[in-house]
Amino acid sequence: MTRFTGRTALVTGAGSGIGRAVALAFAAEGAQVVVAGRRREPLTQTVRLIEEAGGKALAVTADVTDATESRALVEAAVDRFGSLDVAVNNAGVFRGGQPVAELSSADWREQLDINVTGVFLALRAEIRQMRSQPSGGTIVNIASTFGAHTRAPGATAYAATKAAVSALTRGAALDHIHEGVRINAVSPGPVDTPMSLRPGETEADRADRVRAALPLGRVSSTSEIAAAVLYLASDDASSVVGTDLVVDSGATA
Fold first, then answer.
1. Which residues pair with 186 in a beta bridge?
2. Rounded to an integer, what distance in angstroms lies between the CA atom of residue 213 and that of residue 97?
3. What is the mean pLDDT of residues 149-167?
4. Residues of 65-78 as b/e, b for ≥16 C-beta within 10 angstroms?
5. Is residue 110 classed exposed, middle or buried when 0-12, 13-18 and 19+ CB atoms within 10 A define those classes?
6. Structural contact between residues 9 and 137, judged by C-beta atoms closer than 8 angstroms
7. Which domains does the chain have, with CATH numbers?
8. Within a 10 A sphere around the Cβ of 81, how many other Cβ atoms?
9. pTM (predicted TM-score)
10. What is the DSSP letter of 150?
11. Which of 3, 11, 92, 152 sits at 20 to 30 Å (Cα–Cα) from 229?
């Protein structure tokens, strides 16, 4: 399909995992993709994969917790490709394993800074650009089933930050749909990335564990999460505003 031909898509946290899969999926459907993250090397690898498949991409190192860098990231996308039509705010971290009483202040602050403030700052910069364009734009924030949908021991701080992303998404969607900016979220459950592995667990161990734990019997692939993101960002979802789409192998059904 070519749903995004001629459009520019920005993906944060695009050096690996879900972010890289989303960036590759947009490029495969014709988008010019700006990939962002804090480390240059993984972004360069993502760009190489896109260009080897015949696509166009730009790597921009940026720390989304810094308002100036978030603005500069959006400006870089517009300077290179002329517009910002789609943005996916995927950058996030998980610091889990401890109950609240044992959670360090540093781990709490890092998750809050990246998962919430980082999404807010990127979202604000993206909205300001998109509402200035005649065609507006679409934004998809990556939340999680941990948060608004379910909780788990040892993941309370992460869940709190992702619940905030869900609430931020819905509120921003209402604030800005009249300006032509359509905002939604995807909440992944367990995904085939290192984040879903328990300490010391192999991928085979995880497969055995989730076979009985998840109704689908397996974790989601990064390409399945990407497919949900592209749906919400596409014209196929033109009347979908402020939704939080759960993709979790049936875990919260």
1. 142, 245
2. 19
3. 96
4. beeebbbebbebbb
5. middle
6. no
7. 8-245 (3.40.50.720)
8. 21
9. 0.95
10. B
11. 152
Q: Which amino acid is at 8?
A: T
Phi-psi region of 220 (alpha: psi -120 to 50; beta: other; left: phi over 0): beta
Q: Which residues are catalytic?
A: 158
Q: How many helices (H) and strands (E) does the chain have?
A: 8, 7
d(CA 133, CA 195): 37
**CA gap 114, 33 in Å, rounded:** 22
Under the banding of pLDDT at 50, 70 and 90, the label for residue 177 is very high
What is the radius of gyration, based on Cα positions, of the chain? 17
Contact predicate 109/158, CB 8 Å: no
Q: Which residue has the higher pLDDT, 136 or 199?
A: 136
Identify the band that residue 231 occupies on the pLDDT scale cut at 50, 70 and 90: very high
Amino acid letter for position 162: K
Extract the tokens encoding 2.
């070519």
Q: Which residues lie below 8 Å from residue 238, measured CB to CB, with a gap of 6+? A: 182
